[in-house]
Amino acid sequence: MKHLLTDFDWTEGELKALLQKAATVKAKPADYAQALAGKSVAMIFEKPSLRTRVTFELGAQQLGAFVVYLDQNHGALGKREPVGDFAQNLSCWVDCIVARTFSQTTIDELADKGSVSVINALSDRYHPCQALADMLSLYEVFGKLEGVKLAYVGDGNNVTQSLMILSKLLGVEMVIITPKGCEPAADIVEATGFTVTDDLAALEGVDAIYTDTWVSMGDDKDPEDVLRTFLPYQVNSEMMKKSGAKAFMHCLPAYRGKEVTTEVLEGPQSIVLRQAENRLHVQKAVYLKLLKED
Fold first, then answer.
1. Catalytic one among 212, 275, 281, 283?
2. Is 3 assigned a catalytic role?
3. Catalytic one of 53, 62, 95, 130
4. 256 in catalytic set
5. What pLDDT digit, counting tens, does each position of 128-168 carry?
6. Which of 161, 279, 281, 283 is catalytic?
7. Annotated catalytic, 100?
8. Could you read off the pLDDT of 225-276 as tens digits, one per residue?
9. At what angle are helices 12-27 and 272-291 packed, to 10 degrees?
10. What are phi and psi of 40, to 5 degrees?
11. Is the separation of the CB atoms in 98 and 44 below 8 Å?
């Protein structure tokens, strides 16, 4: 049984093969139109979504699979009935569970108690499919991953952590620049060995700058405190010019005038729509990996 629960689950070779498959599917989608005919996918979402839901749902449908969407926005998962019962019941009917949850423990329990493949579509700790789409986008822009210098600026969240792990496995050189107290998880910093600093001088010479919203969905941080803490880390034209970065990245949704200015988000260096598009192709490649291994 193969899952995608964390970015540590697959080897360097498997990740490179998956990105190549995503590029192939992107170039020749018609060749895979019925690749998963007869398969079925259950999507469990505790959090609202645009890119993740649309790309996972369309991705399965475009591969010929059936999809059922289970709206858990009111936090019903684990309350009406235990997560384990949910997983075991779904395993009687579907071939794959896609879950977007508040807690990584929920993802892990779905995989542990169920008997079908589980894909982490976002948790509090990881966002693996987003990071895979980001790696594909970097490759398309720079023609390589090995040696590309990526800076993450902002809050050390689930996206940061997935980017760190994949960067380590795929040869991307990464630096993480966050305010003190907002660093990524210590175990992931230790496992990857990347520099984590609050000094914006570390941006010099990077190829791409990545940022994300300063407040993750579900957080109840005081907006004024957040603004005071993070405003010096806003990605703007001056930062892009001073760093020499050729690309700007964001997983979206973006809040203009906060973590990024409009001129950067909508400017020629922005590859955010490429990242969004590549979510579809990466999701398809993940489905193929789990449900139709060559």
1. 212
2. no
3. 130
4. no
5. 999 999 999 999 999 999 999 999 999 999 999 999 999 99
6. 279
7. yes
8. 999 999 999 999 999 999 999 999 999 999 999 999 999 999 999 999 999 9
9. 110
10. -140, 145
11. yes
> Model confidence over 60-113: pLDDT tens digits?
999 999 999 998 866 668 888 899 999 999 999 999 999 999 999 999 999 999
Strands (E), the chain: 40-45, 66-71, 96-100, 117-122, 149-153, 173-177, 195-197, 208-211, 247-250
Assign 236 to helix, strand or coil: coil
Q: Starting at the edge strand that comes first in sequence, how are the strands of the sheet with 117-122 ordered?
A: 66-71, 40-45, 96-100, 117-122
Kindly name the residue from 51, 100, 125, 281 that is annotated as catalytic.
100
CA 108/CA 83 separation, integer angstroms: 10
Q: Are 61 and 33 in contact (CB under 8 A)?
A: no
| Type of residue found at 218 | G
Side chain identity at 168, as an amino acid letter? K
Residue 30, C-beta contacts closer than 8 angstroms, at least 6 positions apart:
none
DSSP 8-state secondary structure symbol assigned to residue 5: S
Planar angle of CA 193, 181, 105, nearest 5 degrees = 70
Minimal CA–CA distance to 212: which of 228, 200, 230? 230
Pick the catalytic residue from 51, 127, 250, 281: 127
Q: Is 182 helix (H, G, I), strand (E, B) or coil?
A: coil
Backbone angles phi, psi at 11, to 5 degrees: -80, 170
Q: What pLDDT band is residue 221 in, cutting at 50, 70 and 90?
A: confident
Q: Which of 96, 129, 182, 251 is catalytic?
A: 251
